[in-house]
Amino acid sequence: MRKLTTPFIAVSALMLLGAPWLINAAPYESTMGLVQKVFYFHFPSAILFLTSSILCGVHSFRFLFRKNQQADAWALASAELGLLFGAVTLVTGPLWARKAWGVWWVWDARLTMSLVLWMMFAAYLLLRKYGGPGSDRLGAGMALFGMANVPFIYVSVNVWRTLHPMTTVVPRLPTDMGIPLWYCFTAFTMLFIALLSLRANLEHQRLRVESLYLAEDEG
Questions:
Q1: Phi, psi (degrees; rounded to nearest 5) at 133
Q2: pLDDT score for 33
Q3: Residues of the chain whose pLDDT is less than 70?
Q4: C-alpha distance from residue 92 to each of 58, 63, 120, 215 (Å)
Q5: Theoretical Cys-Cys bridge with 8: which of 80, 119, 190, 195, CB 3.0 to 4.6 Å?
């Protein structure tokens, strides 16, 4: 994976540089017009936001029940990217909503639970930074609760009345809208994978240095 990080970053950067031209060529949505094109960045960041929570939860589970320190490093990296991509989601969403719905924010199920999940990422990282001994295990438990929130965020638009479209909209997009969407999604995903790998590797190196210091003190 480490060998792929540089090519992934380079390719994703080139794809994102070309994305505005591809998005500009996509047709306007019939009711929302130009502002709908925020969707091509909003959707990938939202999916990766939820993916970060799943990864953080899975690796936290491995850390809690298998005592795997390497898994904890992946969980921490996932949480940091969750905070990043969640911020992109929560910024692009209101920018789109203000023009499309006439309001910046509504307290519907999806928006509220997404904000709660983002705040959980922030709390997790603050806990890991300043919580002291035992904060890694407490943070792992918090990550499991965050992961449990993901299915509710995803299906909320199908269960409760909301301004968000249902989850069936994306698979039904016409080809001239689907191509730029999946193009942007691919670029964001490659960037996500590269950043995740780099951040986890940095944490692995920190753990190694820490273990060497402890070994030296004991010697």
A1: -60, 135
A2: 83
A3: 1-2, 215-219
A4: 27, 33, 20, 48
A5: 190
**Centroid of chain to Cα 67:** 25
- Give per-residue burial for 70-82: e unless 16+ CB within 10 Å, then b: ebbbbbbbbbbbb
Which residues lie across from 33 on neighbouring strands? 29
pLDDT for residue 63: 95
Of 50, 71, 85, which is closest to residue 200 (Cα–Cα)? 71
d(CA 52, CA 85): 8
- Structure confidence at residue 57 (pLDDT): 97
What is the residue type of 202? L
Q: What is the DSSP string of 60-121?
A: HHHHHHH--HHHHHHHHHHHHHHHHHHHHHHHHHHHHHHHHTSSS----HHHHHHHHHHHHH
So what's the pLDDT on residue 70? 92
Q: Which residues contact 151 (CB under 8 A, 6 or more apart)?
A: none
**Does pTM top 0.90 for this prediction?**
yes
Backbone angles phi, psi at 29, to 5 degrees: -70, 140
Q: How far apart are the C-alpha atoms of 28 and 218, rounded to whole Å?
A: 66
Q: Do 90 and 102 contact (CB within 8 A), yes or no?
A: no
Show the CA angle centred on residue 186, arms to residues 62 and 5, nearest 5°.
Answer: 60
Query: What percent of the chain clears pLDDT 90, i.e. is strictly above it?
Result: 68
